[in-house]
Amino acid sequence: MMREGSQFDSKQYGSKMEELLHQGQGGDASEEFFTSYDEVCESFDAMGLQENLLRRIYANGFEKPSTVQQRGIVPFCKGHDVIQHAPSGAGKTTTFCSAILQQLDYGLVECQAFVLAPTREVAQRIERIMRQLGEYLGVKVHACIGGTSVREDQRILASGVHVALGTPGSIFDMLLLSNMLRKRFLCPDHIKMFVLDEADEILSSGFKGQIYDIFKLLPSEIQVGVSSTTMPPEVLEITRKIMKKPVRVVVKREERTLDGIKQFYLNVEKEDWKLDTLLDLYETIAITESVIFVNTRCKVDLLTNKMRKMDHTVAAINGDMDQDTRNSIVREFRDGWFRVLITTDLHGCGIDVQASLVVNYDLPTQPENYLHRIGRSGESCRKGVAISFVTRDDESVLLDIQRIYSVNIEELPANVADLL
């Protein structure tokens, strides 16, 4: 089940926002506060991103930007303040990470962006995303953990970072300590971007005062980004106080559910062992229809060839195919011409395939795609089983998925054949 907090009404959001902005002001306060921005980029190539950032985005398995990414990356790259209001897993964090990486001056090894998170764990997840996307750019990023790691935080910050992340408490403590010790290991002078990720959870944790304390220390010409799953009054208030004519990106919650889906993971010690594990799995169970998701097009071809050699009836789809070809293959799959469909993520192609078994040969690079892959649309009452292959490198991704969707994914039992 998705968390209750991820369910929202965009109309209610709009009315709440306008109500707040009209308080004590004229009737056109809302229009004056927001910047009108209608540009939608349906591909990463169209966003004007640096080549090394674009390469890493595609290397991470991203093929098509999510709705919030289509509307949120470019305005932030162009210097606008941006408010993102979208469900968990919609790609909000990746939106801001990509836009921050695009704007950093990599020749200046000074902290240029603060990203605040509600918990240490979320800060570390953002750090991981930032490192992955910025690998070819040489980004230096650090999540301040605090506690017993204060000295280590100081050492890393003193060596020079482009981006510092942490809870408002840990970032504010580092700023105070840096000023008090006169070591300047975390200096706000070069900060040009300030982002609150999961702002609703930050504020519900009691960090409101520290957000304002940090904001007061920043240069006056600061760019602000806010992302939030829900839009309580506290978030509306803070956006009004720290943002300047922001672009508003609102994405409705998709009506899909994980209800009725039995979800399991299967430990695979090495990436190279996945193929044999998959073939063993298909020898064990009798399947009427199944979909196998991978993150790269070359894996689509590899698995298709291997499974056909094992006499499985297999169809394959990848992003290079035109829409008519994809639709034709999906129709044949639904009509029973093939029992196995191997594909990269399909939601960006306008295709929805629901099968009794879904295998995540690769875990999705974007948490939202987990719901797209295995979830059921509102009108569907079909049950199903989802099995995700997990290597050691995937363990943190699996934890993120469980946290975002509030699900418990158990290890695949030995009697897997009885589940189908």
From TrEMBL:
The UniProt record lists the keyword Manganese: no
Enzyme kind, highest EC tier: hydrolase
EC number from the UniProt entry: 3.6.4.13
Helicase ATP-binding domain sequence ranges: 73-249
Reaction catalysed by this enzyme: ATP + H2O = ADP + phosphate + H(+)
Motif residue range(s): Q motif: 42-70
Top-rank lineage group of the source organism: Eukaryota
Domain DEAD-box RNA helicase Q residue range list: 42-70
UniProt-recorded Gene Ontology molecular function terms: ATP binding; hydrolase activity; RNA binding; RNA helicase activity
Keyword entries, A-Z: ATP-binding, Helicase, Hydrolase, Nucleotide-binding, RNA-binding
Domain Helicase C-terminal: 260-420
Tagged with keyword RNA-binding: yes
Annotated InterPro entries: DEAD/DEAH_box_helicase_dom, Helicase_ATP-bd, Helicase_C-like, P-loop_NTPase, RNA-helicase_DEAD-box_CS, RNA_helicase_DEAD_Q_motif
UniProt record similarity statement: Belongs to the DEAD box helicase family.
Protein name as it appears in the record: RNA helicase
Native source organism of the sequence: Oryza meyeriana var. granulata
